[in-house]
Amino acid sequence: MKAYSPKEYWAGLADKFYSADSAGFAPILHAGAPAWFNVCIDRLQHSAMRRALDLAEVSPRARVLDVGCGTGRWLRRYSSLGLEATGVDATPQMLRAARARGTTAPLVAGEANRLPFRDGEFDVVSDVTVIQHIPAGLQPQALLEMTRVLKTGGRLILLELIRGEDSHIFPRTPQTWLDLGASCCLCAKGWYGQEYLLPDRLFVRAAQGVTKGRETSDAAGVDSAESMSRATTLRRIYWGLRHATVPLSVWAEPVVRRLCPGGLATHGVFVFKK
Q: Parallel, antiparallel, or unpaired for β 122-128 and 107-109?
């Protein structure tokens, strides 16, 4: 089996989903999901990042580096807030997509663990679901690089997974994200859970259980055409039902956020000061 490479992983997504949607969400959020789902996730993340900018007390005209800028959604938003944004991404295809979608901020090719910038060049560094895709052993180097390019007193904002598993994600618990920041001599200003989506998560878990049971029963063999037709039908039903559970979860999110501990969310938002 070929070794996992974050750069190759993102390049593959950029190539395959470059034109999947006009907003450029497919290559950077949930590739292959319906456009409406990625719009919902983006709205939740946008709200979370606005809260993070407030917690970080980012000053007007601050110089912001968005690491793993992808198709440029945060760069465009930072610029609209009057911040001086710069984007860096390891994947040239992503940078081309960012420019094609109207990103006017400077774009630079570079990897998170070897950032092509001077020490102390930025007031703020943001990282939205980037380090989680870097193997655990390499994550400290990426965070050290983000810290290096921050000015003394600068802010680092992370939005990363705190649960889940897959071949291309390497989440940490909230405490280990905080410990990673402390190991880079960063002081935590605060953190909070992001994306609880409890009704939808319960539905997905139930659906996965049903799917595994069906895969076992079908193991005896169904011809490929029939199997593909069945998979297409099940996918249509699955996303049709999620079209109800996701909006319900988004509607309930403010209440769930107040009542539930941050560790119950799927992601955490962490704000550090250098």
A: unpaired
Whether pTM exceeds 0.90? yes
In sequence order, the β-bridge partners of residue 75 are: none
pLDDT band at 2 (very low <50, low <70, confident <90, very high): confident
- Rg of the Cα atoms in the chain: 19
Average pLDDT over residues 198-209: 93
- The mean-pLDDT minimum among 1-10, 18-27, 36-45, 232-241 falls in 1-10
Alpha helices in 23-167 (DSSP H): 35-56, 73-80, 92-100, 139-148
Report in angstroms the alpha-carbon separations of 173 from 99, 134, 212, 243, 270: 35, 15, 27, 29, 12
By the 8 A CB rule, do 196 and 253 touch? yes
Rounded CA-CA distance 24/93 in Å is 12
Pairwise CA distance, residues 237 & 60, whole Å = 47
Answer left, alpha or beta for residue 164, where phi above 0 means left and psi between -120 and 50 means alpha: left
With residue 179 as reference, give the H or E element that holds it. Answer: helix 174-183
The CA distance from 159 to 259, in Å, is 21
Q: Name all domains of the chain by residue range, CATH numbers in brackets.
A: 6-195+261-273 (3.40.50.150), 198-257 (no CATH)
Q: pLDDT grade, residue 215 (50/70/90)?
A: low
Decide if 67 contacts 127 (C-beta within 8 A).
yes
Joined tokens for residue 109: 């090719």
Question: What is the rounded distance in angstroms from the CA atom of residue 186 to the CA atom of residue 203?
Answer: 38
Q: 190: which strand partners?
A: 271
Name the phi and psi angles at 175, rounded to 5.
-65, -35
